[in-house]
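new request in #modeling-help
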Amino acid sequence: DAGVIQSPRHEVTEMGQEVTLRCKPISGHDYLFWYRQTMMRGLELLIYFNNNVPIDDSGMPEDRFSAKMPNASFSTLKIQPSEPRDSAVYFCASSFGGQPTGEQYFGPGTRLTVT
Amino acid sequence: DAKTTQPNSMESNEEEPVHLPCNHSTISGTDYIHWYRQLPSQGPEYVIHGLTSNVNNRMASLAIAEDRKSSTLILHRATLRDAAVYYCILRAGGANNLFFGTGTRLTVIP
């Protein structure tokens, strides 16, 4: 398996623009997680899905952020409108609920810069 | 979620063992102790986990105190590729989400 795939790897946009980050989880995994990492706040869980259904979105910073999982092999995280403080590395991770370790597999991340 | 406390940074010489400590004095009986590490410019990766007994795998060993209020991740022979931020995380039994703290930045000296 290719692992968790994220695109784009780098995104530079201007304040006010819409940004869409994409994630393809590992095939067969039924959990998908979105994280954000900044120097100030570290690694934060934004939202996670189970079987394509959002389970906990309490980490989503505000209404400008939204996430969807239309099917088991694709998820998006959208920011509209973007602001400079959204600049961060966004990671997607997936896991298999039936695995006792609960091990999460992370993608390489998308580095977002909002100017 | 129960909190963990780790040193901000540690150094180790290459080829020597490294003991990375973690305190979790408020751990509950159903919390698993997980360790992840994050290599530079990469996403975190799973290292090891345990509940009560010490655990070994190909990457590391996990030593858990008898009262479970602390644990130690042991890298038996540090290599330059082990330079990373190591996160100690408590995961409630049955839970699927993880909460990362600040971790320990390990520097390996050649």
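bot summary: Chain A has a mean pLDDT of 94.
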